[in-house]
Amino acid sequence: MDLGTLKESCSQYNNPSKVKLTYGTAGFRAEASLLPSTVYRCGLLMALRALKTGGVTGLVVTASHNPVEDNGVKLVDPTGYMLDQAWEAWANKLAAADDEDGTCAVVQELFQVEDIPYGSSTVMLAHDTRPSADALVKAAAAGVAAMGSLPIACGQLTTPQLHWMVRQCNAGLKHKEKAYYEALATGYARLVSGHPAPSEGLIVDCANGVGAAKLQVLADRLAPGLSAELRNTGAEGLNDCCGADFLQKERRLPAGFQDVPEGARCASLDGDADRLVYFQRRGAADEVHLFDGDRIAVLAALLVMDLLRSLITAEQPPPTVGIVQTAYANGASTAYIEEKLKCEVRVTPTGVKHLHAAAEEFDVGIYFEANGHGTVLFSAALVQRLHELGDDSGPAKALLALVDMVNQAVGDALSGVLLVEAALRRKKWGLPEWAALYTDLPSRQLKVKVADRSVVTTSHAETRVESPSGLQQLIDSAVAAAPSGRAFVRPSGTEDVVRVYAEAATQSAADDLARLVARHVHSIAAGVGLSP
Ligand code: G16
């Protein structure tokens, strides 16, 4: 690394706004014009991370479910997982540097403290469909190049595609986009072989995001194995009244779905295709029946446990299966998993990085946030055992097909669609059978705008408020007065809001509880504008 060149390059990406962005739930996210210096410095960081680990790293320019005027950056470790949490502090320190001198000082400190060897590394870059992407990818590439490293521009990809490609690349396996479709498609074909397709196709809301084009390639590759009609595939209207986040929060039909028949099987992706929910129109109005991440986790568990049951041999200990959720998980799903599936449930704070780590502790770790972000992880030991059983065992072959089909790096809406479709097909189920497993407790989510969301801090996997003082007591009293009430609040790590979640015996009680808790947040944590 040449310090003079680095300093010159850094001076092109100083932060004139003086807004200090911090690493949130899934990287940095803000209104796009505030981002160039932060994204540039993430380029520096990921080149350093690649040098430190000796592998290829990744960086995706995306703001996922946020509105189109926002953008952001998600950072990928050589494992294909999100950036090691221990390095988030470095990301913040770099992002907060005042100017080129400050940035260079942090880079030098990083070299020293992390004992990073000098040399050249490689960072794979991708982006979603936002108009601000080009300038930000250029900033990221400049950061990588300033470290004397190689930025590889992979173009428009879904976030999970880049995670998958980084993971495969570091494992010395085929890692081009084509290989991704190949792996998913062949896994799916093996899994559903001999199980007839349903007569009705799937209708997918693509949130006008990058998932539209990518799902089309996958569906074409699978034709006629997967019959999918894609909607909200445009260049405009990203996440606007559509997409998985809209469905999960608003519980109503997305734009462009007003004509779907009541029983139709529908799914929705978010803007960078790392979240998936299913839904079905309910009644004549805009109402929907939502099949959220909790329900996808249960379906995945049923599929995996059916296969494991037929696989288990007396002489070996049975593989461990666990489901990881967050406080947002509907109480009815948790009860079903524990009481009916007899499966262990772990609860972590929000954020895939937390759920993923917990899921790795099982032979099969199924993690899904209620918002539809999740996947199924298989331990290396189990995969090896499945290979040993090989061709002699139908269940082992099906499980290996699942390992290929389900993104092992991160939650992936495209592989999620195949997971749900394969599970339903193997069980000869439609949405009614899936819905009948359990009935969700009525719930409501709200957002409260406050002057500074960092004043709200939480503990116990985000179920208790630590500060501001007095807020938890007010929430406790509100919960105690609601029939079967449960509520919590937490600062979002992707939007400038405090989130409120409430559950109760009836929808109106859940709505009232959420509104009351939101009012308490608004009054105690310096709410801005009107309380919801
Ligand atoms: C990201 C994270 C998810 C998280 C979501 C919302 O999703 O990857 O784990 O659930 O943000 O986080 P928060 O409630 O802190 O705003 P995405 O799809 O937006 O990248």
TrEMBL record:
Residue positions of the active site: 64 (phosphoserine intermediate)
Isomerase found in the keyword field: yes
Record-linked InterPro entries: A-D-PHexomutase_a/b/a-I (IPR005844), A-D-PHexomutase_a/b/a-I/II/III (IPR016055), A-D-PHexomutase_C (IPR005843), A-D-PHexomutase_C_sf (IPR036900), A-D-PHexomutase_CS (IPR016066), AMG1_III (IPR049022), PAGM (IPR016657)
Highest taxon in the source lineage: Eukaryota
Residues covered by the Alpha-D-phosphohexomutase alpha/beta/alpha domain: 53-94, 118-171
Catalytic activity: N-acetyl-alpha-D-glucosamine 1-phosphate = N-acetyl-D-glucosamine 6-phosphate
Listed PROSITE patterns: PGM_PMM
Cofactor note: Binds 1 Mg(2+) ion per subunit.
GO biological process: carbohydrate metabolic process; UDP-N-acetylglucosamine biosynthetic process
GO molecular-function terms, A-Z: magnesium ion binding; phosphoacetylglucosamine mutase activity; transferase activity
The entry's keywords: Isomerase, Magnesium, Metal-binding, Phosphoprotein, Transferase
Required cofactor names: Mg(2+)
UniProt: substrate binding residues: 369-371, 490-494, 499
Family matches, as PANTHER family: PHOSPHOACETYLGLUCOSAMINE MUTASE
Its biological purpose: Interconverts GlcNAc-6-P and GlcNAc-1-P.
Entry's family note: Belongs to the phosphohexose mutase family.
Name of this protein: Phosphoacetylglucosamine mutase
UniProt source species: Coccomyxa subellipsoidea (strain C-169) (Green microalga)
